[in-house]
Design brief:
alpha/beta; FAD/NAD(P)-binding domain; Enolase-like, domain 1; seven-stranded mixed beta sheet; 13 helices; 22 strands; 30% helix; globular
Length: 476
């Protein structure tokens, strides 16, 4: 067996792992990155990036087909699906090559293979060239997560990436399905479901909960739900998928509606399973390190992302919620700096989350309900996109900005956006919360006109009771 030693090993090269490795190298550490699949992990290859590429294409197709509203007539729009998938793959290839180039430029060694711990300070890596014994002084576990497998709970729901797909299979379909069932009304199912609806698929979403995007402010999800209706997406809320069966005519799905107590069966061309993700902690021989994962499969860490074994760190999905790429990247930087001996902690006051539905949803900080549970009195400002000149001029009037502020001080506690470019607008709110800004700080900051960020300024003014472009009755 070949031998290799490293100062620090980073197990996994997703947005948590590769960022950590580069920062470690910048700080003078000898770094070896172990990756069993492609550099960039799930996010870059089978998640964030490819899905957003397709979502962009779907939005472009829809804008072209509805251009007549603007007096523009377009005829003969056709989707070359294999070519679209090839373009998506080219975007991914450019970015994965970029990650590889950055790791190489920073002097990181990359080992391709499937790794498992054999002791607290060693890994056995199965590489194409044979087994490798890799020893280290410190290790950062960034092994990520994988889609949940529901085949044991729902008969027939076994992912084959042809008739029944997870998100990976959905991103590389050979043809556009005529009828698609999305199992789960969370962000993955709705993002991909919306894309397929825009390119002509009849989409049905089945969700056991009473609303889509469970846990998101219902005021925001109502806007998305209305838009899904316009796209022809059929939502089956409060409904369970009981079984599926692949046959010659398609995939037969049996549902049970809890409200009516009725059972029904429908035929689909494909089924997309998007019901959450599971930590990969059970795949890496964690028991050999002295660590144990919690019941959810997450590894407990401290403020420096250090585990109970001092030279082992955990970052990204494997370190717990929220399972977000940017959260993992931030953790990677903290872990790297901690290993290098710098004074650093993971102290994030504002962790944003974005859902690339139509319209987009972006949130950061507390909702009104969360603030109330903490005993905080709030004042809330809401400003609609329909009153924003830029939103109207780009034909995107749906949605609003909701700003939650502490009643007495005006300190911004949370900002929740549903509307065009919400993903790009939320960063101003993140900065505001991190720096302890008030609604007045945002309202007094001049925002260029006509732009979508003006909605944040006016939401702040609305919280203070004097928004200009909406009427607010005087409080007695």
């Amino acid at each position: 067996m070949k031998e290799l030693s490293a100062d620090v090993v980073v197990l996994g090269s997703g947005p948590a792992g590769y960022v950590c490795a580069i920062r470690l190298a910048q700080l003078g550490k000898k770094v070896t990155v172990v990756e069993r699949a492609e550099l960039g992990g799930v996010c870059l290859n089978r998640g964030c990036i490819p899905s957003k590429a397709l979502i962009y294409a779907g939005g472009l197709i829809e804008k072209i087909t509805h251009a007549q509203e603007l007096g523009i007539t377009v005829e003969g729009v056709k989707v070359d699906f294999p070519k679209l998938v090839k373009w998506k793959d080219s975007v991914v290839s450019k970015l994965t090559a970029g990650v590889g180039g950055l790791l190489k430029a920073n002097g990181c060694t990359v080992v391709k293979g499937d790794a498992k711990f054999t002791s607290p300070k060693s890994l056995q890596v199965k590489t194409p060239e044979g087994d490798l014994n890799l020893t280290f002084n410190s290790c950062v576990i960034a092994a990520g997560s994988r889609p949940l497998d529901l085949s044991a709970k729902i008969p027939g729901l076994t992912v084959d990436q042809k008739h029944i797909c997870d998100s990976t299979g959905a991103l590389s379909m050979e043809k556009i399905p005529g009828r698609l069932l999305c199992v789960g009304g969370g962000y993955i199912g709705l993002e991909l479901g919306t894309f397929f609806a825009k390119i002509g698929t009849q989409v049905t979403v089945v969700e056991a909960m009473p609303q889509i995007l469970s846990g998101v402010d219902a005021d925001l999800t109502k806007v998305v739900e209305k838009r899904l209706g316009k796209l022809g997406v059929h939502l089956k809320l409060r409904t369970e998928l009981r079984s599926v069966k692949v046959g010659k005519s398609g995939v037969e799905a049996t549902f049970f509606a809890s409200e009516t107590g009725k059972q029904e069966t429908q035929i689909f061309d494909a089924v997309l399973v998007t019901v959450g993700r599971k930590s990969n902690a059970d795949l890496i021989g964690l028991e050999k390190t002295g660590l144990t994962a919690d019941p959810q499969g997450f590894i407990k860490v401290d403020a420096q992302r250090r585990t109970s074994v001092p030279h082992l760190f955990a970052i990204g999905d494997i370190a717990g919620q929220p399972l977000l790429a940017h959260k993992g990247s931030k953790e990677g930087i903290v872990a790297a700096e901690a290993i290098a001996g710098l004074k650093t902690v993971y102290d994030v006051a504002a962790m944003p989350a974005v859902i690339f539905t139509d319209p987009e949803i972006a949130t950061v900080g507390m909702t009104e309900g969360e603030a109330a549970k903490k005993g905080l009195k709030t004042k809330v400002g809401v400003f609609p996109f329909a009153a924003n000149g830029r939103a109207l001029s780009v034909n995107e009037p749906d949605g609003f900005v909701k700003m939650v502020c502490e009643a007495q001080s005006g300190r911004v506690l949370g900002v929740h956006i549903v509307g065009a470019e919400a993903s790009n607008l939320i960063s101003e709110a993140v900065l505001a919360i991190e720096m302890g800004a008030t609604a007045e700080d945002i309202a007094l900051s001049v925002h260029p006109h006509p732009t979508l960020p003006e909605t944040l300024m006016e939401a702040a003014e609305a919280a203070m009771g004097h928004a200009i472009h909406i009427f607010q009755p005087k409080k007695l």
